Amino acid sequence: MADIKDRIAREVLAPKDLDAIVVTDQYNFHYLSGFDGEGELLISAGRAVLITDSRYTIAAREFSAPAGFEVIEYNSGHPRKEILNGLLSEDGLHKIGFEDLSLTVAELEKYRKMLPDIEIALLGEALDALRMVKSPDEIALMEEAEHIGDRALEAVLPLIKPGITELELACEIEYAMKREGAMGFSFETIVASGLNSARPHHRPTDKPIEKGDFVTMDFGCIYKGYCSDMTRTVVVGKASERQKEVYHTVLNAQLAGVEALRPGLKGKDVDAVSRDIIKAAGYGEYFGHGLGHSAGLFIHESPRLSPSEERVLVPGNIETVEPGIYIDGFGGVRIEDMCVVTEDGCRSLALSPKDLIEL
Asked: Do 146 and 68 share a domain, yes or no?
């Protein structure tokens, strides 16, 4: 725990002149304590406490023990208000940081009333920034999560044929990921076919897949707490010349983005590499979202690859590279890999082929 306390003291408390922080965001809570249940953390330079209720006490002690957290149970006879006020008073803590990016106004006001004698400070991105660079252990978990997606895609490709619905295919993808070891899903699985493939975040419907359709599948799983993310687009039957043109434009942009991803560049610089290829092909107006985002315990983390991202990439950042072209009345294509930034470039965590597949 000394490492975590020292890091919090060095990177969060000292820069913001804080005595302690209270952590409630589920991802920061898990990252710092190793426990994915409910509760709150109180961390100062000299103490780390996990406060939870009787539903989670046993598990909290088991999973947070390696990080050195003291677990305190609250109940009707020992309420959170008394515990927090007691700890703050005992340790002489007065200026406390709270996670304004995840707390609601009502929740923050509740803390103001619960702790009337402390000064509340806002943490902004200070805690989220701790998670931007992944450790080798985290990268290994995310790589396995991405490989679960690889194996799931391989399993469902033979099922993609006229008649199966978007909903049925989404269920098959999720079942395959569960069968391969997924503990949950990073987000709601996207299966978009035909004209629906022009909708980047389409929700699967009972529309049957038809011959000649683009079928875009965007899916990810959770493995031991960490997320994966992958997108592949296929054609049912023979692709038309226009479908081939759009597909290969996206593929070229995706491959170039992966090639460009390396430390020292800003996120907007990598975005521009892929975006310029799509613009040069005449499809710039049909690529409206950013090139990618980081992932980890949460599916959308920072730094991102977008026209506005000023952060400089460093080794250990995880980034998706996912350009797309979406044409209303025609359809769309997106291709996505999750990559880790290395010392001299990047490495894709996905193994699935990206050449145009005609089923």
From this structure: no
- Rounded Cα distance, 56 and 26, in Å: 14
How far apart, in whole angstroms, are the C-alpha atoms of residue 332 and residue 202? 11
Apex 150 CA angle, 146 and 152, nearest 5: 110
Q: Which two tokens stand for residue 249?
A: 């434009």
Q: Which residue has the tokens 């994966």?
A: 228
Residue-range definition of the domain harbouring residue 108? 2-131
pLDDT in tens, 110-159: 999 999 999 999 999 999 999 999 999 999 999 999 999 999 999 999 99
Give the burial string for 233-256 (b: 16+ CB within 10 Å, else e).
bbbbeebeeebeebbebbbbbbbb
Q: At what angle do helices 57-64 and 26-33 cross, to 10 degrees?
A: 50
Omega before residue 204 within 30° of 0, cis: no
Please tell me what DSSP assigns to residue 69. Answer: P
Q: Helices 105-114 and 80-91: crossing angle, nearest 10°?
A: 60
- The predicted model scores a pTM of 0.93
> Which CATH number fits the domain that encloses residue 204?
3.90.230.10
CB within 8 A of 16, min separation 6: which ones?
97, 121, 123, 126
d(CA 277, CA 335): 14
Which tokens belong to 261? 């991803």
Helices (H), 17-135: 26-33, 57-64, 80-91, 105-114
